[in-house]
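pasting for the record
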Amino acid sequence: MDHDGIAYLRANSAAWRLLRADSAPLVLAVLGQIFVVENVRTIAESALLSRVDEVLYQVNRSLDPDGEQPAYPRTARQYVQSWAAPDVGWLRTFYPDDSTEAHYDATSELEKAYAWVAGLQARSFVGTESRLHTLIDLLRQMVQGADADPAGRLAALHRRRSDLDAEIEAVGSGRTPPLDATALRDRYQHFATTARELLADFREVEENFRALDRGAREKIAAWDGGKGELLEQLVGDRHAITASDQGRSFQAFHDFLLSRSQQEELTELLEGLVALDQVEVDRRLRHVHHDWLDAAERTQHMVRLLSEQLRRFLDDKVWLENRRVMDLLRSVERHALALRVTARPVIEMELDALSPQLRLPMERPLYASSATEAFDTVAMGAPEDAPDVDTAGLFDQVYVDTTRLLATARRALRGRDQVGLTELLRDNPPELGLAEIIGYLALTEDDIDLVVDESVTAEVGYLDLAGVTRTLRMPQVTLVRRGAATTRRSR
């Protein structure tokens, strides 16, 4: 960075402005504890004012027991409103769809300032071994992953397999002791730091998408040209974000966490981490993968808002164009009525390059009736000779009780966040064949979502109404309890 770049950041960076503010200790102590340490994504105004007021009382009482000259003389509401001002940029104010009370969320600038101040604290233990292993793994992935020669990549994989075989043999023979307390503390410190940095990165990605959405609203509000040109700009801006390195990396991370096997493995590993006695583990890290998914869902929500803006813009344009057509038709009608009441109106019309065609009445063909076929409805033979036909099948109707299916799904989700449709059908075989499977796919309840992964094909076996075993191939479907930390990919 050069001198001009640093000077620009000093004048315009909200994080730098926070570090230079007189109330910086109060801001970092209150907002850092809420939004960084406790990882609260949104908080209602009343709850935030209560937290700020409590800290103000404690700090002013400790610095000035007599209360004559408090260090922070303003009220909690005044401080919060100043922190959320547009020219300050430490808090973001918004109103959720289901609430009339203002809510607040921290900006990425607050995260950066808090991380910088937290890094100034002296640490009694600084782990380096785990970071060295991480660097070597990253180098291995880059160099070997960029190798276009399949033979070279195969040779690297064979070496890794040989190393794994040797490690397996050493562990089996008892020659490799488990990690000691120092190595565990080293790796835990690296993991905890990286996990919290991921949450901070999500806020920055979300702000990038929010800035794109805000720019789209501004363009739509001030646009007076054709819709094609504006759509080209908006779609191009969105594609520039999603197709960038940041957008592709975020999507890959999001897809990785959506995998059910990865979620189960992360849950198992985090529970094992909390159970370690050699390391003092922060209990909040036990559910950090759910926090990642919540943050990713908020980022995806901004993408959906941008799509809604495009859809609303198109609907408004179509409505305006239809209104313009109706105005033209009304104008034509008014002019026609005005001409009708005018005495002896003179209406002239010019026809370009047309000539009249004459057709005599006798040239028209006479009416010809269409040929009809006789249809004999009398059955051949005597009535007693007619074969017996079971007509009951014409009146059989298959009724799928969605209430029973919903109760089965809720019973399967009791005690866990999600269950695969294949597993659900294996434990509860469908009684009505394919119709019952389709009934599960049609569940539309407030407490259950469907997640469809079209990249994975699942096979579902069932018995049809005739008792014949059938196999249905379909994308992998997962039933997810609403409120669980997961995201719908398609519905």
